[in-house]
Amino acid sequence: MNIVFSRDSQVRVMENTVADAEKYFGQLCSLLAAYTRKTARLRDKADQLVKQLIDFANSENPELRATVRDFAEDLAKVQDYRQAQVERLETKVVNPLKLYGARIKRTRAEIKKFKHGRNHEIKQLKKLEKLRQKSPSDQQMISQAETSVQRAAVVSSRTTLQLEETVDAFQRQKLKDLQTFFSDFVTIEMVFHAKAVEVYSSAFQTLEKYDLERALQNFRAKVHGVSGRHDTWLLASTDPSPSAPHSLASQGPLQFQLKRANKGPE
After folding, report:
1. Tens digits of per-residue pLDDT, 207-245?
2. Which is nearest to 17 in space by CA: 128, 104, 86?
3. What is the rounded CA–CA span in Å between residue 203 and residue 69?
4. In degrees to the nearest 10, what's the CA dihedral of 206, 209, 210, 215?
5. What is the pTM of this model?
6. What's the alpha-carbon Rg for the chain, to the nearest Å?
7. d(Cα 122, Cα 7) in Å, to the nearest integer?
């Protein structure tokens, strides 16, 4: 009976190992799947930002338009890398973790098979003890019961050995897979961030090269040009009041504008 209890203790350790794998691998799978989905949503938001930047660039002057478009193109490149990141996470991390459900199910079936054999062995042992207590003189029945116990013990011992090998292989594969999953995860993240830093550096240089003062001067020149034409139109279309004599100061600019307008190219 002590041997049976010893096997029972072994099985509890094995069951706990499989149960922990089911619990924590399931949680890891769920979290990494959520991480991948959020990364995909970040990619989508960044795509919207790129589109908005291009729309904004189309409303600006040529110099700013070129700068913003180049910047938006760099951001778009980062999203291409992020798309590859999402696909690799799904293929190399999330999907393999999902497959662990089937592996755990097979291992649980092996444990259940062993427990069935162990219960049969315990049943035969109890039957033998009962015969020894109630019919100690019935050697034939006791002998048959002892034979049944021995057979059950042999089956249980063989099943225990098989179960140990199965759970040991499960544990070895679990540790190896855990190492592989997170090595792939880190590699995928490093590749993405390395490429992203390279592109972001280019985007930073694009912004640094932008000549703000020149753009501001062009804007002021544009504003002043429009204002000048507006003032000229006002002067040309306004009739002088008879009661207000023209001064030389007021006639000079108007005469200059009319003279420049009527004079052909030199």
Report:
1. 999 888 887 887 788 788 754 444 443 444 444 444 433
2. 104
3. 10
4. -160
5. 0.69
6. 43
7. 11
The answer to whether residues 152 and 116 touch, using CB atoms and an 8 Å cutoff, is no
CA separation for the pair 79, 40 (Å, rounded): 9
Q: Tell me the two tokens of residue 256.
A: 């200059």
Between 49 and 255, the more confident residue is: 49
Contact residues for 75 (Cβ-Cβ < 8 A; gap 6+)? 46, 49, 50, 53, 203
Query: CA–CA distance from 37 to each of 32, 62, 94, 185, 240 (Å)?
Result: 9, 38, 11, 15, 72
Select from 85, 81, 3 the least CA-distant residue to 36: 85
Helix%, strand%, coil% for the chain, nearest 5: 90, 0, 10
Look at the block and give the residue holding tokens 């691998």.
25
- Rounded Cα distance between 266 and 262, Å, is 12
Q: Which amino acid is it at 29?
A: C
Buried b (16+ CB within 10 A) or exposed e, 163-185: beebbeebeeebeebeeebeebb
The token pair at 222 is: 């544009």
What contacts 232, CB < 8 A, 6 or more positions away? Answer: 257
